[in-house]
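Quick one, tokens below:
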């Protein structure tokens, strides 16, 4: 391709709307343009990258026995009502009506459609297992689309669904997809780590997220260098708390005046105790009731764990008015002792406290010598706290480390969650009807492109891994006015293309510096400069984008040298 014929609207200024590196560089390098909030047009260079990522995905899915199909983006509400997710998915679901006032949605995912499709086509155990996938646009009405392609309202996604006879079959399918995902991201040139995660609105028992490690990542992950444990902070398990020391004598419950002391840290300092001796009581509202969540004062509530423990659909922190209405006390002075008509969920480490401090449900007042079991009994004890770096690994006890990550894929064991509610069954070898056991596996294609930039860039622009670069090499004649240089550049460009290499010829009548800057910004893995030495001595300059290594080599060796270097980039 000749740059003079390309749609390549590079920008010199950093767009004000761009918050993260990938967003800035995709805009500046002429890959995307904003159409509406969270919705982008993919220009030719972006489309080339996306097609390469999709091809890698297709090859790895097919290798594991996946069969590609295509499902509709517009889905009838009846399917979502049948599965019970029409309300569960909440405001992120784009809903619309047709001219007959029938309800539809724009698909954020395809569990309903694929399950009903298999329900209608599969009758016998002889037709299983099945692995079906498609690559298509998805839609989620994000409250605040941000970070460019990281969190948009329209995006491209691959999802595969497995259908097995039993849990043993699901285990095999899950392992196949785990291997396939590992290969996909490795082939895309990404440093990626699978971590335990929460299944969210998709549901299911077991799930792993594939995280591209990058400082700009939205998600925090905890991992252990001594073993293979890794988890999203939303999922990371706390090490079981030690039991109460039987030698500790329970003190007498007593009210203490604590004027103006609200936070656990303030109360601990005022009463000269450690924050870990304070019971932090947080009031939440679910779709059913009001809940008090108890954690130690040095810990924070993990709202994802709490939501799952409560088996709730919605969870939100109560505001000041709601707290007063539910407890009779202002925020900062609420405690579990004497709370009426409120469900209490306590973290196990709260139950291991003795002679603790807690709010007295009175303004400017706390209680000391609070003992769980004697002074209050929770309705539920569950791990509901955030785990932090430095704590013991729940698997081996070594110290946990923290990193930032960008989720680019997730795999789920769904079991019979959807096959039961949607009636997807088969007849086994004994003629008995059984529910199909399912899994689902998603890769964010557009997000993978953005994540690749977050992990591969410098101050000059993008550094594409060769496997997903829009083009492999750019040929730059120093002077477009020099006929000899242009002829040699043209000849090299043609030879590269005949050799099956994806080459660009920058034939624009621009200064060399402009061409070099654009080449670095776009991120071609290799740059070959044809200048006066090419005309006089038959030598060209080859520069590797990632390392910056520059070599002079004979023009006649350039094609072979590109073939040799490219697999290493």
């Amino acid at each position: 391709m000749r740059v003079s014929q390309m749609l390549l609207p590079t920008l010199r200024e950093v767009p004000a709307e761009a918050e993260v590196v990938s967003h800035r560089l995709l805009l500046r390098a002429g890959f995307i343009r904003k159409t509406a909030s969270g919705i982008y047009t993919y220009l030719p260079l972006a489309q080339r990258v996306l097609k390469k990522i999709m091809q890698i995905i297709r090859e790895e899915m097919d290798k594991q026995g996946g069969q590609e199909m295509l499902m509709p983006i517009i889905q009838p509400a009846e399917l979502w009502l049948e599965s019970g997710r029409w309300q569960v998915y909440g405001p992120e679901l784009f809903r619309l009506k047709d001219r007959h006032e029938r309800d539809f949605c724009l698909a954020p995912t395809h569990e309903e459609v694929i399950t009903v499709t298999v329900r209608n086509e599969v009758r016998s155990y002889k037709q299983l297992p099945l692995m079906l996938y498609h690559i298509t646009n998805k839609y989620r009405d994000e409250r605040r689309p941000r970070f460019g392609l990281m969190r948009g309202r329209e995006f491209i996604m691959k999802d595969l669904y497995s259908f097995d006879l039993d849990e043993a079959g699901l285990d095999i399918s899950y392992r196949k997809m785990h291997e396939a995902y590992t290969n996909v991201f490795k082939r895309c040139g990404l440093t990626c780590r699978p971590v335990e995660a929460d299944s969210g609105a998709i549901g299911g028992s077991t799930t792993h997220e594939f995280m591209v490690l990058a400082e700009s990542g939205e998600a925090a992950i905890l991992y252990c260098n001594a073993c293979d444990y890794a988890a999203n902070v939303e999922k990371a398990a706390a090490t079981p708390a030690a039991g109460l020391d039987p030698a500790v004598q329970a003190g007498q419950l007593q009210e203490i005046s604590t004027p103006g002391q609200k936070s656990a840290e303030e109360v601990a300092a005022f009463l000269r105790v450690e924050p870990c001796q304070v019971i932090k009581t947080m009031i939440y509202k679910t779709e059913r009731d009001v809940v008090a969540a108890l954690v130690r004062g040095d810990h924070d509530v993990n709202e994802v764990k709490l939501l799952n423990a409560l088996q709730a659909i919605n969870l939100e922190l109560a505001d000041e008015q709601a707290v007063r209405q539910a407890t009779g006390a202002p925020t900062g002075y609420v405690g579990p002792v004497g709370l009426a008509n409120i469900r209490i969920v306590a973290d196990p480490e709260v139950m291991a406290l003795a002679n603790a401090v807690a709010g007295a449900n009175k303004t400017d007042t706390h209680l000391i010598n609070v003992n769980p079991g004697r002074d209050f009994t929770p309705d539920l004890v569950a791990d509901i706290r955030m785990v932090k770096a430095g704590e013991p690994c729940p698997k081996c006890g070594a110290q946990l480390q923290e990193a930032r990550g960008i989720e680019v894929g997730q795999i789920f064991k769904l079991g019979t969650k959807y096959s039961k509610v949607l009636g997807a069954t088969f007849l086994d070898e004994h003629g008995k009807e059984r529910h199909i056991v399912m899994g689902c596996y998603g890769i964010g294609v557009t997000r993978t492109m953005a994540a690749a930039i977050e992990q591969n860039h410098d101050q000059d622009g993008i550094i594409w891994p060769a496997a997903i670069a829009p083009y492999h090499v750019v040929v730059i004649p120093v002077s477009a006015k020099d006929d000899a240089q242009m002829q040699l550049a043209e000849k090299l460009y043609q030879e590269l293309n005949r050799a099956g290499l994806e080459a660009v010829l920058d034939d624009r009548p621009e200064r060399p510096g402009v061409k070099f800057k654009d080449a670095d910004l776009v991120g071609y893995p290799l740059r070959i400069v044809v200048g006066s030495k090419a005309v006089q001595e038959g030598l060209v300059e080859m520069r590797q984008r990632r390392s910056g290594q520059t070599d002079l080599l004979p023009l006649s060796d350039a094609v072979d040298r590109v073939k040799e270097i490219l697999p290493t980039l």
